[in-house]
Design brief:
By secondary structure, the protein is α/β, with parallel strands linked by helices. The protein is built from 13 helices and eight strands. Strand 5, helix 5 and strand 6 form a beta-alpha-beta unit.
Length: 300
């Protein structure tokens, strides 16, 4: 098949490479021309403007948008739509809020276009092992683009999740679960490291051990194993500053909307906030209060 691909970032470029490996025709655009040149040298066709990308595709066109969620995605869809023909397909593969995807699907469908939201998981490893794809939109549109999805995903690695927004909603919850799993691993390894046995424990070896048949084995734990091997037991060259890209917040809001208790995911998000503080004012207040009512020592 052929596809226009907008956005050649950390995931986008590797997704194009995976498509090229399976002999799909890819016309690629990126805001930075050097990234277009790089992917052209690997077999893609370059487009140095959005209009050029659209012109190089045959109808019904398929355009995959892989840019940051929010305004950047909205702006890109607004830019490309006037250049397309009715019946063309736009796929949002970024981490968009599912409410935005519902809106895009409804608006584009009313104008005669087809839309799909494709929640994409796999990170920098996707080129090698494939991308897990959670897809929302019309079933007929999904079936039309299925050869592309099959190339991008590992076996059984893609699913039509439902109507507009269902793909990004499923990906959002997936990322919320990821928050909780990562937090649990982090806390567990800190308990090990801080214990009386910590000085004798090799955390790389422990994580490797746990990946051999234990009930907590996972790909995330395999990545922890790799991290301890690369950075050492202390992770001394890594600052404990953890950003969030929005999905955890949206998952918690969905839990609130549906009256579903989600204490683990919520706590994991707040721990990410905590990681960004040089000094916790909350902790300062606690220390001050303990000093006031109990005369407990305050560290200056």
């Amino acid at each position: 098949m052929e596809i226009g691909f907008i956005g050649l970032g950390r995931m986008g470029a590797n997704m194009v490479r995976r498509l090229l490996r399976d002999n799909h025709r890819v016309v690629a655009w990126n805001r930075t021309a050097s990234k277009i040149d790089e992917i052209v040298s690997e077999g893609a066709e370059g487009a140095y403007s959005i209009s050029e990308l659209v012109e190089k595709l045959q109808t019904p066109r398929i355009v995959w948008v892989m840019v940051p969620a929010g305004k950047a995605t909205d702006d890109m869809i607004d830019e490309v739509v006037p250049l397309l023909s009715k019946g063309d397909i736009i796929i949002d593969g970024g981490n968009s809020n599912y409410h935005d995807s519902v809106r895009h699907g409804q608006e584009l469908s009313a104008k005669g276009f087809q839309f799909m939201d494709a929640g994409t998981s796999g990170g920098v490893w996707g080129l090698k092992v494939g991308y897990c794809l959670m897809v929302g939109g019309e079933k007929a549109t999904f079936e039309h683009v299925e050869p592309l999805l099959k190339t991008l995903a590992p076996p059984d690695g893609y699913l039509h999740c439902g109507s507009y927004g269902a793909g990004h909603f499923t990906k959002m919850v997936h990322n919320g679960i990821e928050y909780g799993m990562m937090q649990a691993y982090g806390e567990g390894f800190e308990i090990l490291k801080s214990s009386e046995f910590g000085s004798g424990l090799d955390l790389h070896k422990v994580s490797h051990l746990w990946n051999q048949g234990s009930v907590v084995r996972s790909w995330l734990l395999e990545l922890a194993e790799d991290a301890f091997q690369k950075h050492g037991n202390e992770l001394s060259d890594i600052r404990g500053y953890v950003n969030d890209s929005g999905e955890g917040r949206w998952t918690i809001q969905a839990a609130i909307d549906e009256d579903v208790p989600a204490p683990v995911i919520t706590a994991a998000l707040y721990e990410r906030f905590h990681s960004r503080q040089k000094e916790s004012f909350t902790a300062q207040v606690l220390a001050a209060l303990r000093n006031e009512f109990g005369g407990h020592e305050v560290k200056n």
